[in-house]
Amino acid sequence: MNIKLSDDYIRKIKSTVHPHWGELGWVTYKRTYARWIDRLNRFEEWDETVKRVVEGNINLDPRLQNGTATPDTVRVLNQEAEHLFKLIYGLASTPSGRNLWISGTDYQKRVGDALNNCWFIAIRPQAYGDSHIVPFYLKKDQPAVSMPFSFLFDELMKGGGVGFSVSRKNISQIPPADRQVDLDILISKKNGDYAAAVEAGAVDAEDWKKHHDSSAVMTYQTPDTREGWVESCALLIDAHFSSIIKNGGHLAIDVSKIREKGKRIHGFGGVAAGPVPFIEMLGAVNQVLNQACGRPLTSVDCTDICNLIGKNVVAGNVRRSAEIALGDPDDQDFITMKQDQKQLMDHRWASNNSVLVTPEFTHYSKVARAIADNGEPGVVNMDMIRNYGRLVDGRQPGIDGEAEGTNPCGEISLCNGEPCNLFEVFPEIAEHQGWAMDEVLHLAVRYAKRVTFSHYDWACSRAIIRKNRRIGISMSGIQDWVLKRFGERLVTGFRNIRDPETGETYRKPVFNREAARIFDAFYQSTVAADQAYSEELSCRPSIKHTTVKPSGTVSKLAGISEGMHFSFDKYLIQRIRFQDSDPLLPALREAGYKVEKDVYSENTMVAEFPVKAGGAEYDRFVSANDVSISEQFATQLFLQTYWADNSVSCTITFHKDEAGKIAGLLRQYRKACKSTSLLPYSGHGFAQAPKEPISKARYREIKSGITGDVKAIYQSLNSNQSEKDLELVDQSDCATGACPIK
């Protein structure tokens, strides 16, 4: 039985509820989440997107899937679908960007993984198990070095981000690479990318076969599928280990069947990158492993392999490669690996790198210097993650005891093979539209819980998802809402305290007590909603429930500040990049927006949007340019204390004169912070910066030049008739750009 929203109900909501579009909202939606409808020969409108998303989610309820739903259950779920539609349509809340893009599609039904933003995998030998990919030369219960790399490759190609651990505890389990591999990559002249492939290192397939005895060479024909690419890479990796493949010294991988560059990818969307990036990746991975022959793989070797895979995936245009590498705090080679500028520019840009620390670790000087110089590494405290939910609830030994890492943005603690599962609430908009927050959180929890009943491709994922049922209900626009609701910020002051362990004097934050009470009440409502739905479904309650994600594209829809972050400035120019054939561009020009050629990239245009911060008129408003590094640390602590039982994602920005405070603040919060990252505050210092602070007068001047309604113009031009395969340029689901949306 499938639940469907009625046309009458949708018409009713459209006539009474007005979406809370931000100044960038409708344009961001149209270029990012509106899917092509073949039968209508056009892109979706917002109500159609929300209908698709809600129906895709509500029908994941296992009682509908297994036929045990009673008429009363169907009635309740129908009502819930209607409430969800109204909530999301009004932009008082939204599921993650991945859900906005994929929920309710045929692709979601085939690939349940696609509903989750990000994943985590430990880089150590593992068995593939009963997964959709088991390389032909392996038994499913046979541990293989390739497995975590295959998991990462597969999930990146599905559009997810992946966190991975290269700690000594993990990589020490990898046997030494005991064989160099002579790799030949073959391509037929029949492939349209033959010339480019040969230039990239491939050889003519027919000529190679004339001069080689194929029985003496391990050969593999790469199918033109995601699974085929993954299996080819797995074969290459495992060939370097004689304990896994006995005769793998000479390997030939034939890529002739890979579709040519520019051909459409059905299902997920976008166009093919062709075989060239894949060929380059295989050659580079083989080089890393050949150079490691005779010794154990290092954290840098393993990170390089993951980064090379990510670099290849980026070439698929609508996909982004979001990775976080987690290493040891005393692994200097890992900490400094991005200082090699040649390697950084080639592939090491593909991951954010963080170190795994304990509350006892206090030697932050080297880490702080690296952060001040490069904005990395971030810091992840696994002891805090495993033994704490919210800090106000105290230490709960082993509450998340199997957690080993995080997603790329750091807001969700994850076990091996586990995904993050997010839903975002905008309290200021919800309250303005008359929603009770208890009902909003109730709907959010049930939406996220249903995602855990998707079909998952990997055995390790299915097992841990069933066990944890982890969800992450997040909030955005926090700073603006707090100022409006309470009249002051979350941190109301500081007082001096002496640390009994280090002897240092530090400034302990003083919190807004009424805000603490409200956030605590929100948390209790969230947990209660999960408990009730878990009983209905006869499944485990979620191991953790709440978080603060960094947001990004989704928060732009509603025009609010991102996660817990302070607005970039009161007034700014926000620049968004578009493929030069995007049908939105003529409408933007006609409406009066400035559109110009991108000075950095070919076939790309840049449009400028004047933006006013949501809380710009509130008393005590501060922007990210004004707020101190100390208050940002303290704000993260507030939310970790009273709201988030997972983690709080925060990119703390600092000015040059604050760099000397980093080590002390990391020591101060070593027993309170689960994960954090820091970046120098970057104002407008280069051409076509994504964000440029401007004056109020300049904002008004630009606004006065925008004389048309871009939505109306776009619809009148109706220029989307042949633009099915647009490439997304420079958009992400997170403020930092770490997590992908497609």
Detailed description of the structure:
The longest helix has 25 residues, at 513-537. The radius of gyration is 25 Å and the shape is globular. The protein has a 7-stranded mixed beta sheet with strand order 4-7-12-13-14-25-24. It has a 4-stranded parallel beta sheet with strand order 9-8-11-10. Helix content is 38%, strand content 15%. The model is unreliable at 725-731 (pLDDT under 50). The chain is an alpha/beta fold and 742 residues long. The chain contains 29 helices and 26 strands.
What is the helix fraction of residues, given as a range? 25-40%
Low-confidence stretches: 725-731
What would you call the structural class? alpha/beta
Spatial order of the strands forming the largest sheet: 4-7-12-13-14-25-24
SSE arrangement:
Layout: H1 7-16, H2 25-32, E1 36-37, E2 42-43, H3 46-58, H4 62-65, H5 71-89, E3 93-95, H6 97-102, H7 106-110, E4 118-122, E5 126-127, E6 143-144, H8 147-157, E7 161-165, H9 168-171, E8 182-187, H10 194-199, E9 203-204, H11 205-211, E10 218-221, H12 226-238, E11 250-254, H13 276-291, H14 299-314, E12 323-327, H15 332-335, H16 341-346, E13 351-357, H17 365-374, E14 378-381, H18 382-387, E15 405-406, E16 413-414, E17 422-425, H19 427-432, H20 437-451, H21 459-468, E18 472-475, H22 478-486, E19 491-498, E20 505-511, H23 513-537, H24 553-558, E21 571-579, H25 584-591, E22 595-597, E23 604-612, H26 629-642, E24 651-654, H27 662-668, E25 675-680, E26 691-693, H28 696-704, H29 710-717
Parallel strand pairs: 4-7, 7-12, 8-9, 8-11, 10-11, 12-13, 13-14, 17-18, 24-25
Antiparallel strand pairs: 1-2, 3-17, 5-6, 14-25, 15-16, 19-20, 21-23, 21-26, 22-23
Helix pairs in contact: 1-5, 3-5, 8-12, 8-14, 12-13, 13-14, 20-23, 25-29
